[in-house]
Amino acid sequence: MPCWRRTTGSNGPSRRAEDSERRRARAPRSDRRDLRPYAERQDDDWLRRAGDPVRPVVARTKGCPVGSSRWTARRAAVVAAPVLVPASMSALFAVLARRQPPRRAYNVGFGAYWLGWCLAFPLWAIGPRRAIGVLTRGRRPAAGDAVALLLPVLGAAASELFPHRRLVRGRVLAVMATTAAVNAAAEEMLWRGVFLEEFPDDPVLGSLWPLAGFSVWHLAPQIVLPSRFGRVGFLLAATAVGAGSARVAWRTGGLRWVLLPHAATDFCGVTAARFRLDGTR
Predict the structure, then answer these.
(1) Cα 17 to chain center, whole Å?
(2) What angle do the packed helices 143-156 and 230-252 form, to 10 degrees?
(3) pLDDT of 38 over the 50 cut
(4) Which pTM value belongs to this model?
(5) Pairwise CA distance, residues 110 & 99, whole Å
């Protein structure tokens, strides 16, 4: 079988391609298929894989060019998430607070947040394979990064766990541990993993912008269970936790080293665990 070279001559594949394109354009829409000889189609595939600048790269499986509206919609949704998540969750917690008892409103709101934004959205935005990859990936952090992860844990232990240590027993302990594991993995995937995968070379969109959304989102549950430190104090604490995770996730390229410190910080939430369990403030 001859191997055609790309040429502009009258006898080369370019002339054949023009004839095939004219025949294809005249055919009915249902019959518009690639009518070129097999060798020429193979040559075109090779040029496409080699990055031929003349012929557009086409996503064969989707039937549309790379960078189609569907791909753009996913990336646009990721960029908009730091606005959409706080806005939608604040509205949901406000509605639940009016129609449900406080404990149920709190638990249902967090359930919707975990299942909707933290699970379904990342799976749709980046897919399960990339999600698992970013969860298990990450270089060993430097000493300064380790300190950035440790400080929020110490702060949460000193301000929340130690003052309420006598309340930590039985079912409260179980809720603290379960909630910490679920919330840490869920939030790291949404606020760090998705953005690392989509914008690995852009520190603003890949790290700083989701940090802002992560911090502001924590005001939504305050509609049902206000913090004793006030909204501003709780916002600053959430920003400190998020800043440490955002720094280390960006510098190490994954979430492996930020999951455990985030879970340890959330584990210190004795008040929230008791409220989830029996509504005690």
Answers:
(1) 43
(2) 150
(3) no
(4) 0.75
(5) 16
Q: pLDDT at residue 17 above 80?
A: no
Beta strands 58-59; 64-65: pairing state: antiparallel
- Worst-scoring range by mean pLDDT, 26-30, 61-65, 98-102, 255-259? 61-65
What DSSP string describes 32-75?
A: ----S-HHHHHHHHHHHHTT-SSSPPEETTTTEETT-HHHHHHH
Partner residues linked to 151 by β-bridges: none
* DSSP sequence for 114-152: IIIIIIIHHHHHHHHHHHHHHHH--PPP-HHHHHHHHHH
Is residue 26 very low, low, confident or very high in pLDDT (cuts 50, 70, 90)? low
| For the chain, domain boundaries | 13-55, 84-278
| pLDDT over 50 (residue 103) | yes
Q: How far is CA 189 from the centre of its chain?
A: 5
